[in-house]
Amino acid sequence: MLLTGEIQVTYGVYRKMTLITNGIRSNILRALPLLFIVIGIGQTLFVEDPDPPFLQMGFFFLVIPAFFELMALLGWAVRRRSFSRPIRYEFTDKGMTQLTAAHRLDLPWTDVTRVDRWPSTWIVNIGRGKCLRVPRKALAPADRRTLNDFFLADPATFG
Q1: Cα angle vertex 96, ends 138, 118, to 5°?
Q2: CB–CB of 35/42 below 8 Å?
Q3: What pLDDT is recorded for position 143?
Q4: 82 contacts: CB under 8 Å, gap ≥ 6
Q5: In what order do the strands lie in the sheet with 114-117?
Q6: What is the structure's pLDDT at 79?
Q7: Are residues 101 and 18 in contact, defined by beta-carbon separation less than 8 angstroms?
Q8: CA distance 121 to 66
């Protein structure tokens, strides 16, 4: 098996990889503040003595999604020069290689502890909190299926 692909990492791609790696589902982040706003408005309209701390807490939950968005934006600002050229990925039976403008990373499959499969990204966990994010868009659709099947064929290694 030899699969190759490359992707120009834009802010949108970087944002998805970052928020997913942090375990944040963007739909949940969008729904949580809206839920508190709706509850706060309902409480204000239908309860005679609304509880102001609840409204304050609801506005506080508007800050949580903004924090993760800000962290993604700051990370992009720091790394955007390294993403000036496309990132190239190569997958073989023995391991994977990531080629960026700054460095080359060869990673044998024996060093991989788990692969998390998300809709837009594979998160290749190397251990001790280290991971490598691989956007699915880097590969052609047929190669995506082949790589995903490769990961699914060995659940003991790839989770």
Answers
A1: 50
A2: no
A3: 94
A4: 100, 101, 102
A5: 114-117, 121-127, 130-135
A6: 83
A7: no
A8: 22
Residues forming beta bridges with residue 88, ordered by sequence position: 6, 99
3-class SS of residue 37: helix
What are the mean pLDDT values of the chain's consecutive 10-residue runs (159 residues total)?
89 81 58 71 69 60 73 85 88 92 89 87 85 91 93 80
Alpha helices in 80-124 (DSSP H): none
The tokens for 38 are 């709706």
Residue 113, CA distances (Å) to 36, 151, 155 in order: 38, 12, 11
- Strand-pair partners of 98: 89, 105
Over the range 28-38, which residues count as b (16 or more CB within 10 Å of their CB) and which as e? ebeeebeebee
Which pLDDT belongs to residue 22?
A: 58
Q: Which residues contact 76 (CB under 8 A, 6 or more apart)?
A: 11, 14, 15
Strands 104-108 and 114-117: unpaired
pTM: 0.70
